[in-house]
Design a protein that fits this description.
The chain has 116 residues and is an all-beta fold. The protein is built from no helices and 11 strands.
Length: 116
């Protein structure tokens, strides 16, 4: 099994920045994609950013140019640098990692709140 622990959420004013981290422990070999999702109240969970094992990245249109995803394979950690935050970025952010078919792992979620 793989356990994911997120950190870095909090309350920030619009225009501010936060950096989320997610560290994996347990059977952490052969991690493929790493990603961040978010879920706002009353809305479905959505993909924010994803990074492959080859470090190819893609982003939701709403965050492109403001958020940057990165990974440190030696530390089994994925990061999300969030700049120019907006109130609509307020959500619970979830870390995700994949090790293969039906080997999906999720973090417990970390709250990000952006005040106007």
């Amino acid at each position: 099994q793989v356990q994911l622990v997120e950190s870095g959420g909090g309350l920030v004013q619009a225009g501010g920045s936060l950096r989320l981290s997610c560290a994996a422990s347990g059977r952490v070999f052969s991690i493929n994609d790493m990603a961040w999702f978010r879920q706002a109240p009353g809305k479905q969970r959505e993909l924010v950013a994803r990074i492959t094992s080859g470090s190819t990245t893609d982003y939701a249109a709403s965050v492109k140019g403001r958020f940057t995803i990165s990974r440190d394979n030696a530390k089994n950690t994925v990061y999300l640098q969030m700049n120019s935050l907006k109130p609509e970025d307020t959500a619970v952010y979830y870390c995700y990692m994949n090790r293969g078919v039906r080997l999906d792992y999720w973090g417990q979620g970390t709250q990000v709140a952006v005040s106007s």
